[in-house]
Design goal:
The protein is mostly helical. The protein is built from two helices and no strands. The longest helix is centred in the middle third of the chain and has 13 residues, at 34-46. The chain is extended.
Length: 71
């Protein structure tokens, strides 16, 4: 077996230092299984516009909106 990094007395240091954050309530239920694959297919393949010049990534719409930019 290989050697360990550091002593076992220091295990869990980073996790114990991090502040405790409560879980957030989600507005929509997260899709799982077949339904999730169906959603992925629709998002990636079915709704893609073939006339677009560049391929848009999955995070395309998350940038700053024009109304959010201070004037």
């Amino acid at each position: 077996m290989g050697k360990q990094h550091g002593s076992m007395a220091r295990n869990g240091k980073v996790r114990n230092q991090a502040p405790k954050v409560e879980k957030q309530e989600r507005a929509k239920k997260v899709q799982m299984g077949r339904a999730k694959k169906r959603l992925q297919y629709a998002r990636r393949c079915a709704m893609v516009n073939p006339n677009d010049k560049r391929k848009r990534g999955p995070n395309f719409g998350s940038g700053r909106k024009p109304e959010d930019i201070p004037k």
